[in-house]
User: Fold these one by one.
Assistant:
Number 1:
Amino acid sequence: MTATATMDGATPRVSLTVRFFASAARAAGCQQEALTLPTEASVDSVFAALATLHPPLQGLLPACRLAHNLEFVKGALTLAAGDELAVIPPVSGG
């Protein structure tokens, strides 16, 4: 399932894809969505936008990692059209 959402009030903005995995996908209700975000963002601002769009994610996001174009990121990031973000929840294995 793919959803489409927009975060208003910020310029300039870019359209990108956000992918959700495991429990994050269940909480978001989709595995990926198109999202419009400011070009200058941070992990915190991305997570805040996602929590607003998907309230069930609020409790999970503090434990998640964010990947930007296949690289884990922290702090500030510069986004470009067509970028991919991935929300990776904590995992355990045996």
Number 2:
Amino acid sequence: MKRILLCSLALSLSSCSNTRTVQFTINSEPQGAYTTFEFDSPTTNKDAQFLGNTPISITREIDIREVPGNAEVTLRAMLPGYFDGTKIYTMKAFLREAKTKGGIFWNFDLVPSNRSE
């Protein structure tokens, strides 16, 4: 019985160390921008994940086993009539900022595209 409990505890601890809970707090000027994040590397799928419309404060679980350390993490804010706002991190810098600052905090100052849509 002790062996089963120890194995169970070891498995739960090892799976916990492979995920990171990341708090995203993102705003834009003007507000209402469609916000995504994605991981980009030769071994990952580049599908963007929708975070919400700004202003947002949301928590996501990230399985770091699925993302190599050399991956880029891209935050993007999009709003019709404005150029996209983009922030790119290395995976290492992304995780370091999330840990040291308690989350990812960003404010996108979107620039009008001056084109009619």
